[in-house]
Amino acid sequence: MAKITENTRTEVREIVLAFFAEECEADKSQIKDNTSIIKDLDGDSLMFLELIEIFKKKYNLDIELKTIGKYAVKHPVETIGQLIEMQMLIIELENRLLELEK
Has this prediction a pTM greater than 0.90? Predict the structure, then answer.
């Protein structure tokens, strides 16, 4: 579990944008919060899993993929902005993510 700072937000945003720019061969400057991961970037769910693994290592997170999966079913991610916000929750709450449902 990590405290979210402005530096964390900036770092996560940068990692997400660079990841999708490289994986989807897109111009990073054209990727915005409202960019659709599937429609605009031709991304997929495997990319999301890859990103989770990157952040798990970077922030030494202890979170199970099934926890993220259960949360994502009720809170689907379609845009870059939504993905960044979900990643912030994962970093901050780890396995307590599902407590948001209560």
Answer: yes
